[in-house]
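== Item description ==
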Amino acid sequence: MKRTKHIFFLLCLIAISVIAQKRMIVNPGYEVKKTGIDNVAKIELTDTATLLTMHITFVPHWWTTYDSTEVIRDCDTGTEYKVKKLIGGEFNKYIWMPDSGDSTVVLVFPPLPASVKKIDCNKQIFGISLNPALAGTRKPAVMLPSIDKWIKEQLNKAPKNTLANYELPSFFNEKQSRLIGCIKGYDTRLGFTTGIIYANNTLTREDYPIVVKIEPDGRFEAEIPMIMPRYTSVTFNEQPPVPFYMEPGQTLCMILDWNEFLTADRKRNIRYAFSNIEYRGALASLNKELLAYPTNNFNYQVFDKKRKTMAPLDFKADQLKEYDNNMTQYREYIQKNRLSEKAKTILRNKIMLTNANMLFNYAMSRDYYAQQDSTNKMLKMPVPVYYYDFLKQMPLNEPGLLACDEFSEFINRFEYNDLFTKSQTQFYTNLNANQPKPEKNLLEYLDEEKIQISPEDRKLLALAVKSKLTDDERKQLGEMSEIAKNFNEKYKENLQKYSKKYIEPLIKTNSRNDEIEIWKLKDCTLQNELDLAPNLSYEIAKVRSLNYSFKSATSKENATDLWNALKEGIKTPYLIKTGQDMLVQAFPDTKVASHALPNNAGADIFRKIINPFKGKVLFIDFWATTCGPCVAGIKQMKNTRAKYAANPDFDFIFITDQKSSPEKDYNDFVKDQELKNINRISTDDFNQLRQLFKFNGIPRYVVIDKNGDVINSNFSMWYFETELGKIVPAYNK
């Protein structure tokens, strides 16, 4: 009996010992997390391992992965513990979500010392408490009283009156506006300190980012240049855009909740519509009205299938049926809900613009897809003129159309619709057909001047001067692009002399007159084929064309003549002012060789990069490994960089950001291309540089003079050899 009791006592001690060696925290508390997909459901702490049970919530049939380099980190000491095992999946392989969209895996790490109180997990979830008493509870994020006070102070200084309506001339107004607010639950450990607003001037084609600066306490603000009201959005950390409506001169406050960003993160299959936004300021009520309207998700795959399998009029009928449904929903909604007239106008215009963009996009992409699939009979069917009669139902003369973000896409599709481009193509076809041939072609001219050229150059010219080429010859000519580039550089002066002697005398008209005639044809197309009267949208299309026309104009006189001809058909005073400003900007009375960098955060970041190169002209390349044209451009310039490697007068500098250029790809590419003066900076800093030089897309090339001033903020690197001598006289050939 005593022996039995003794054994039982020993078993109890062993059991107690095992229990003592194992702690379990269910739904541990945490401070902040970046992911809406992963959640630590349970932590088990033993003498041999630390087990984190991860509950995954994601889109059904989508996948996620876990990397073999995952770590947990002691928040107090910074000590990291690398993952040893993954239960329920394999490292670096897809973990597919079931129908429920819920899954569970277990990450196994080394045991933690008893002194560890809090850990970070995978640089995604921060401040996870190992105290069981704090498990299962998490207070909602709140706004600090100091931020609330700051917001009230800012709004007290802001205008109280908003636009009464969208009528001219009050619609256009060049006043800077302010977006302020805070993100409740924000933490610097989330890894971003900026947001982005994509500002654009639809009239001048300018399109560039505005940086929204986020303070450590979560408050944010941005100054936004504006020329008219706009319903647009702000983006934080590449999450879905957060909508807001703004008017020139106004201040709007937005109070956001980080938890809603996490919800959006795990619902990546849809265009997530934010709903938990508090607006403050004179425009708050209008923003609330717009936010509350139910949105429809666009399915690109469905649209892509339709445009490849449906005849033009069948697609149009199908799209108009969807448009009618959306308009019916709109009418029913405004009957049940009291909305301001401005809210009604914006919501209606968004529906109309979206419908027009869908119809335009179907028609515009047909030639491209027909080339990709030459057997598709549907893609070969022509789009009839009356396909475009949907334009007659649109308020093309109303300024309110411009307040919607969708107008930027619409005006681009409108000005390049098939009927307008066919008019332009026909004009140049007729012009070329009636243009006499030069007395001698380039090859004959070079022989006449007894200029020796290499056999490969002669082969190139023999093909280039032929009026008709076989498929094989066309292929050969395409393969000789590098020879052609070198030829143009080598014989630049001879080409200019040939042009002056044989080509220029044949030119009966100049580009100014050509463009005027083309616009006359477009005027006829507008009225006779589209059955539309001149309108505000058409006037905007004319003004938008000036950007390119002025750049390619041979003189200020020609540009002025073109503008005088175009503005006869423009009735809107602000558009006339805009066109005049563009002319002055393109042909200033005093040509400024360079301009100094401003004093702001972006310029400070840029100066740190370029200061070590003072005394040299700098060619700055903004690029990314994920940008195909960027990579191609750098590869194409490799021999040129090597050619000028020892020069003392200028240098190349490369700037990319960490998110767009993953570290391994970046290191491999830099090594392969032998790049020097490389900078891989944070995405936040890169955003500041994008705002500084006003660019969205890359590659973007900027030229800096020897004093650190800007010579050209949008340089064409393709013409580097041609332009080098103009920028650095020592290399003038």
Q: What stands out?
A: The chain is about 40% helix and 20% strand. The radius of gyration is 32 Å.
